Amino acid sequence: MASSQPPPRPISSTLLLALVPIASWFIVRPFLDPIPSLPALYTSIGFSIFTFMATLYLVPALGPTFVKAHLSGRDLLKVYATQIPESLGLVCASVYILALILFIPFAFSDSLTIRSTRTPEGIFVSEFPHSRLSVYLSSLLSLLIATILGFLDDVFDIRWRHKLPIPIIASIPLLMVYYAERGNTHIVVPLPLRFLLGSLLNLGPLYYLYMSLLSTFATNSINILAGINGSEVSQALIIAISVILNDLLYLPWPIGFHLPVHLLGSNAEVEFGGVWSAGMAYGSKELVERHLFSLYFMLPLVAVCSGFMYHNWYPARVFPGDTLCYVTGMAFAVVGIQAHFSKTLLLFFLPQIFNFVLSCPQLFGLVPCPRHRVPRFDADTNLLHPSKAIFMKPPSKLAATVLRILSIFKLVVLTVHPSGVILETTNLTILNFFLVRLGPMNEKRLVQVLMCCQIGGSVLAFSVRYGLAGLVYDGDRR
Amino acid sequence: MASSQPPPRPISSTLLLALVPIASWFIVRPFLDPIPSLPALYTSIGFSIFTFMATLYLVPALGPTFVKAHLSGRDLLKVYATQIPESLGLVCASVYILALILFIPFAFSDSLTIRSTRTPEGIFVSEFPHSRLSVYLSSLLSLLIATILGFLDDVFDIRWRHKLPIPIIASIPLLMVYYAERGNTHIVVPLPLRFLLGSLLNLGPLYYLYMSLLSTFATNSINILAGINGSEVSQALIIAISVILNDLLYLPWPIGFHLPVHLLGSNAEVEFGGVWSAGMAYGSKELVERHLFSLYFMLPLVAVCSGFMYHNWYPARVFPGDTLCYVTGMAFAVVGIQAHFSKTLLLFFLPQIFNFVLSCPQLFGLVPCPRHRVPRFDADTNLLHPSKAIFMKPPSKLAATVLRILSIFKLVVLTVHPSGVILETTNLTILNFFLVRLGPMNEKRLVQVLMCCQIGGSVLAFSVRYGLAGLVYDGDRR
């Protein structure tokens, strides 16, 4: 069953070359007549394809450089002990951010925005969008800081408790510019609470706290659902695709379409579309712009994640390091905050929320937390088994109660001494939970289960967002 | 003469504590009546004092962490071989950029700009300065990228030829936002050339090339004038102070003053001042704002450099690494470009220009270039001597001619075989030039000579800028 370490994954240069003209066409398209209604979106797609190619090519090319700089480690769940390059998320982050920077003139310069006023069907501004540029730049700053801090974490191996506030530092530029730009701190109150709070509530400073906590959650929740090949990048990929699907609903589409929301329990019959009607934005320029902003950040992220996943897929040839988790998490926080759909965004994090809640007893010291909580690898069968945390002294009453409740719901398996004292518990992560419920499986199958769970979570998220949300919110979605 | 490695330099906690109320007063001052005419400048000074304290404290505190992460090296010009923490410029850059980010709401929010309209003497905008915020943010992006790339250079030890374009990448956000904001690409033509080119010349794309070359020069010219304790940071400190002095000339001062420019060869008698007259800006709101922008970036830079210099001074307890050179160089390029005084800025780089021109034969392969060109250390006398480059094969005719000319001007000392073939030359750097002209000296004296040279250069720069420039430019200084 044992396998030796495989060589770097091959890249088809034919495929790469074939993508060049396609990507170039998308970038050039906005300058050709007839000018499309959303010109910068074409450029963004073109840039994303180039980003995909750059990641696909650079990650294996730079691997040896990382090994030389002591940035490597062995794969704990394999039989071979070869050093695998670590922290390659830095390459992803650099390519991603560089693409976003080069995109600035296309998204904000006159040449495109002024030209676009010629198409009366689209929804556009003719004056220079200074305010949106500031927001875009502050988002880039936050992504860059997340990258630096993630890489510092990889180099200096910062302790868990010290790295919790890192995303808060990275979110400072977002908050500063949000404040300087007099950002909205009102939230729409759910229908059942309106008799108490009115329909709009000004959270004031609490809104800033909420934003920095969102960054912290988005970043750390991906970082703690890690440890097996492809787990970090596949989460990021699926969340990014979900955000894109949600954004697409708000764009002005040239075709009419109909969303069967009544099947999902909504009272309203929602039909929208028709030539250049504005999707679910119902003609709101503001909403279209917000979701375009989100697309500009998510399209290249999907490209980078796909390119990286090719090399990080089981058996992994490279590791992402903390850098990838930080930068992807911050990217989600950025679009959630700046495009004002943080509640919808959180719905796409259902598996992460489950994993975080399940982890709490270990994260907050109720149950012993070993350095690594990844599943245990059985070299003979090549299967993963749930890993265990051992109680060196009997657990407190509270810990024992919590563990017994988790055990009843089959979230953990306990080893109990005949006297009734808990001796061991499986570690409190979603990966160990899968292994507890579905039995031992190999690493590739486990990451596939995780991905299915993430996709299932997104399907559920869409049902809740466009079905159930109608019960507690009206159309007023500021 | 030999000395053992000294312990970390002590920090007076009394001094640090005494600075807290002073810094706090400067930050709070803009909110107290009577509101000062330049409120954000007070905040900037307050932030700078905190920045100084943070650098002074954090650099030695984080030193051991850097050593643990393999970021250390021995001091080549000392008798001891202890590992000294390297790349501490990263700490400086982080503190510096964090201070600039936290400063955003003070520089741009309503609370200060709207309040300030109450003082009719000052020169202020009441509408929100979106465009200036974008420029500020793009500058921060460039500084952050310079930091990342500088640190990557330290970690991966990038080869000389590969790292030349690094500042160009870092300047991309500057250029992108300059373009998106429809930045001015006109230059004022010197008087003698106006009959040919008119008084204003649009450089178009060449202006962008000029800006990225300026970043490249400012960054690399500090990086190649390095190698002895305190050399990098002292250059940055003196240039930053020179820029600040120049900026102060353009602020509205409450007192009148008189600059004896006629002594410097200018025809015009320049007298300015009086209560709230606008210094050399002659009431131009635009000019005052540009130089305020420059001050916001330079004041904390001086603070960071002073704090770092305390620990980097001979005998150095920490090394700056490439990160410090990159971030300071980029900071100068940023203010030169955004505040439109790049020609004046270049005048403050006279020693760096001299060093660069002198280095050219080695940089471009005419003369052999050893890995390190730092002066040679004589452990017995504790003195530095000029280091030498050895010709493994006889130099080309061109190289020999160049070296003989340099030798005539006593810029180098050659070792010549009786047959007339050049065997050795002292390395072509300003440090070796000092040693050739002034004789062997110890490291501390050499860095003092370098600093005197830098100060002398700045004095000359001011004379040229406010004296001779009157001969080739009129008052039209766009």
TrEMBL record, chains A, B:
<keyword id="KW-0812">Transmembrane</keyword>
<feature type="transmembrane region" description="Helical">
    <location>
        <begin position="422"/>
        <end position="439"/>
    </location>
</feature>
<feature type="transmembrane region" description="Helical">
    <location>
        <begin position="88"/>
        <end position="108"/>
    </location>
</feature>
<feature type="transmembrane region" description="Helical">
    <location>
        <begin position="347"/>
        <end position="367"/>
    </location>
</feature>
<dbReference type="GO" id="GO:0046872">
    <property type="term" value="F:metal ion binding"/>
</dbReference>
<feature type="transmembrane region" description="Helical">
    <location>
        <begin position="323"/>
        <end position="341"/>
    </location>
</feature>
<feature type="transmembrane region" description="Helical">
    <location>
        <begin position="44"/>
        <end position="67"/>
    </location>
</feature>
<dbReference type="GO" id="GO:0016757">
    <property type="term" value="F:glycosyltransferase activity"/>
</dbReference>
<dbReference type="InterPro" id="IPR000715">
    <property type="entry name" value="Glycosyl_transferase_4"/>
</dbReference>
<dbReference type="GO" id="GO:0005789">
    <property type="term" value="C:endoplasmic reticulum membrane"/>
</dbReference>
<keyword id="KW-0479">Metal-binding</keyword>
<keyword id="KW-1133">Transmembrane helix</keyword>
<protein>
    <recommendedName>
        <fullName>UDP-N-acetylglucosamine--dolichyl-phosphate N-acetylglucosaminephosphotransferase</fullName>
        <ecNumber>2.7.8.15</ecNumber>
    </recommendedName>
</protein>
<keyword id="KW-0472">Membrane</keyword>
<feature type="transmembrane region" description="Helical">
    <location>
        <begin position="133"/>
        <end position="152"/>
    </location>
</feature>
<comment type="similarity">
    <text>Belongs to the glycosyltransferase 4 family.</text>
</comment>
<dbReference type="Pfam" id="PF00953">
    <property type="entry name" value="Glycos_transf_4"/>
</dbReference>
<keyword id="KW-0808">Transferase</keyword>
<comment type="function">
    <text>UDP-N-acetylglucosamine--dolichyl-phosphate N-acetylglucosaminephosphotransferase that operates in the biosynthetic pathway of dolichol-linked oligosaccharides, the glycan precursors employed in protein asparagine (N)-glycosylation. The assembly of dolichol-linked oligosaccharides begins on the cytosolic side of the endoplasmic reticulum membrane and finishes in its lumen. The sequential addition of sugars to dolichol pyrophosphate produces dolichol-linked oligosaccharides containing fourteen sugars, including two GlcNAcs, nine mannoses and three glucoses.</text>
</comment>
<dbReference type="GO" id="GO:0006488">
    <property type="term" value="P:dolichol-linked oligosaccharide biosynthetic process"/>
</dbReference>
<feature type="transmembrane region" description="Helical">
    <location>
        <begin position="293"/>
        <end position="311"/>
    </location>
</feature>
<feature type="transmembrane region" description="Helical">
    <location>
        <begin position="446"/>
        <end position="468"/>
    </location>
</feature>
<keyword id="KW-0460">Magnesium</keyword>
<dbReference type="GO" id="GO:0003975">
    <property type="term" value="F:UDP-N-acetylglucosamine-dolichyl-phosphate N-acetylglucosaminephosphotransferase activity"/>
</dbReference>
<keyword id="KW-0256">Endoplasmic reticulum</keyword>
<feature type="transmembrane region" description="Helical">
    <location>
        <begin position="12"/>
        <end position="32"/>
    </location>
</feature>
<comment type="pathway">
    <text>Protein modification; protein glycosylation.</text>
</comment>
<keyword id="KW-0328">Glycosyltransferase</keyword>
<dbReference type="InterPro" id="IPR033895">
    <property type="entry name" value="GPT"/>
</dbReference>
